Amino acid sequence: MFRVRLAPSPTGKLHLGTARTALFNYLFAKKNKGKFILRIEDTDRSRSTQESEKDIVEGLKWLGLFWDEFYCQTERLSIYQKYAQKLIKEGKAYYCFCSPDELEKERKEQEKKRLAPRYSGRCRNLTKEQIQKFEKEGRNKAIRFKIEPKIVEFDDLIHGHLRFDTSLEGDFIILKSDSFPIFHFAVVVDDAEMKITHVIRGEDHLSNTPKQILLQEALGFPQPQYGHLPLILNPDKTKMSKRYGAVEISDYKKMGYLPEAMLNFLALLGFSPTSSEILSLNKLIKKFDLKKVQKSPAIFYKEKLDWVQGEWVRKLGVGELGKRIRDFGYKEVTDEMGAIIQERIKRLDEVPFWTDFFFKRIRYEKSLLVKELGDEEVRKILEAVLKDFEKISWESNKLKEEARELSGKFNLKLKEFLYPLRIAITGKTVSPPLFESMKILGKKESLIRIKKAYMKLEGKR
């Protein structure tokens, strides 16, 4: 059975890139009837936080990417200890007593000589007596893995055959002096213990793969298949940053993007379906093919995200849209209101702009009311509307028919005729469909607003 994992470090909120990685792993697992595993890599005690872990978990749930198994690395420390000791016993790792100051001095000397920074191996061949002496002195000790220079080769599912020369690598720490594992070591142990068959992760991890393969060989672990996803870049081809907009999933949730739209858009960052670009999660599962993931970086265009979002808003049924709007926090917005703004909104946080006139006392200057037609003509229009609209059935089609007839009498285009009426009803020059809005407001409230506008022209409150 295929088994994949998402392994985020809880050192920050759920990033777009991590969410895209989660999605591609999820699609691959479900397409192949496999398992999707969430593993929180929280061994960096100085940077990991409960808040970040909670944000990652909640973000994945919001997106609908539910896992089959869940693990936290800090609950598995004894497992890493066991495998580290195995490497020590087999002579494939050793204790390192170098202090941070000694390592920093060594690094600076290498810089002066213009050498690539790497551990010199000063603790590699310590005798038992030297080790016992350092231990009696109370020195902190880490465990380092011995690197034997060689060419590491593997076939990446996206980038093809790759080769790395490890001769420039120094022996690296696998277990720190506080007994917490380093990333490379914990990843290798966990992937083996959890029987991970495919490691699908960002291209920024490509350089980590040779070290991890060396550890797998030393521990006798099977090597999973690797697939490194293209980076996501800003439109100017720079690394994604907040300078170009939000980079965290929670920010998009707060702005009122739909999870369906976010998933759909994330899938398009590196993967191109052959048919329509508007695809549900189930359709993405059916169409996903890791072999069709592009090698070149994916470009994040917010305009494309907004287009996808708009398409998904318009796909929702009236009742579902109303529910989403109310769940987002706008409790007073009815299904009817949602229906008349559906073609106008992209994000749910835009709802107040289009609906606030239903709930608030509207305010506008007289100058706005008469901007297009002038005092006298607006006065006559509002007077005629008050007189004729009082008599008709309060249905949007009836209101439109009456307005069209009145506009003809004033020798005006319907759009021109409706301008002062729109201001009177909504206080804005743009609004949802006017007659549908008046239907929702009701006859009494609509006529009150038109009368107030008329009185404003008369200089009365």
List keywords for this structure.
single chain, 461 residues, mainly alpha, Rossmann fold, Glutamyl-tRNA Synthetase, domain 3, Glutamyl-tRNA Synthetase, domain 2, 3-stranded parallel β-sheet, 3-stranded antiparallel β-sheet, 12 strands, elongated
Explain the overall architecture.
This protein has 461 residues and is mainly α. It has 5 domains: 3-72 and 183-232, Rossmann fold, CATH 3.40.50; 78-175, Glutamyl-tRNA Synthetase, Domain 3 (Glutamyl-tRNA Synthetase, domain 3); 242-315, Glutamyl-trna Synthetase, Domain 2 (Glutamyl-tRNA Synthetase, domain 2, Orthogonal Bundle), CATH 1.10.1160; 318-354, no CATH class; 366-457, Arc Repressor Mutant, subunit A (Orthogonal Bundle), CATH 1.10.10. Helix content is 46%, strand content 11%. It has 20 helices and 12 strands. It has helices spanning 16-31, 50-63, 77-89, 100-112, 128-136, 183-193, 209-219, 249-254, 259-267, 281-287, 302-315, 318-327, 335-341, 351-355, 366-369, 375-389, 396-409, 414-426, 434-441, 443-457, and strands at residues 3-6, 35-40, 69-72, 93-96, 142-145, 151-156, 160-165, 172-175, 198-202, 225-229, 232-233, 298-299.
* Beta strand count: 12
Task: Report the CATH C-level class of the largest domain.
Answer: Alpha Beta
As a percent range, the share of strand residues is: 5-15%
Number of helices: 20
Shape verdict: elongated
Largest sheet: 3 strands, parallel
| Poorly predicted regions | none
CATH architecture of the largest domain: 3-Layer(aba) Sandwich
- Give the total of domains: 5
Spatial ordering of strands, largest sheet: 1-2-3
Multimerization status: single chain
Structural class: mainly alpha
For the CA atoms, what is the radius of gyration? Answer: 32 Å
